[in-house]
Write a structure and sequence with these properties.
27% helix; two-stranded parallel sheet; alpha/beta; two-stranded antiparallel sheet; 2 domains
Length: 179
């Protein structure tokens, strides 16, 4: 069941993706939050209507793509709500792409909640070099033609983005802005 201020929707099916980050100083805290979210999901959605899938943050997305392929041929494929609130970009952009490309999906609603407030702690840190989001291109070296424009909106922290753009796309019309 999904609730907002004025309307209640009964879900015919709900899939919950639990994303497990790489080991870090925050692993215990993240596990506790996942446990709370899992318990809430299990309480709110009837067992016969729900799926729970756990993914490692950096695992290849082939298993996720197989799930999407199953969902879009399933009984409820015509109407899908995708909530990207807590999904990392490397998951929700491919999910969105696969659902948009499916001829079976007639109505796709994408939601994203805004928090009442943000934590004072760092939201993320950058353990790896920047690269393309999975399914959205090859390596920078394999780009077949020069890039004319780069538009980036990937969160709150720039990490290594300014250096990536300066080093790999040294055209004079590229401007990077600090956060």
């Amino acid at each position: 069941m999904v609730r907002n201020q004025t309307t209640t929707f009964n879900l015919a099916h709900a899939a919950f993706l639990e994303i497990v980050d790489e080991a870090s100083a925050f692993s215990n805290q993240a596990k506790a939050l996942r446990d709370v979210n899992r318990a809430h999901f299990q309480k709110e959605v009837k067992a016969e209507l729900r799926e729970l899938h756990t993914f490692d943050l950096l695992e290849p997305l082939k298993r996720l793509q197989r799930l999407v392929d199953q969902w879009v041929v399933g009984e409820h494929r015509k109407n899908i709500i995708l909530d990207v609130t807590c999904l990392p970009e490397r998951f929700f952009f491919p999910l969105l792409r696969w659902l948009l490309n499916s001829a079976a999906v007639e109505n796709l609603i994408v939601t994203c909640m805004a928090p009442a407030r943000y934590t004072a702690q760092e939201l993320a840190y950058n353990p790896q070099d920047l690269t393309h989001i999975p399914t959205f291109g090859g390596s920078i070296e394999s780009t077949p033609r020069p890039v004319k424009r780069v538009i980036v909106s990937a969160g709150f922290l720039p990490f290594g983005l300014p250096d990536l753009l300066k080093n790999n796309y040294p055209e004079p019309d590229i401007v990077t802005c600090p956060p």
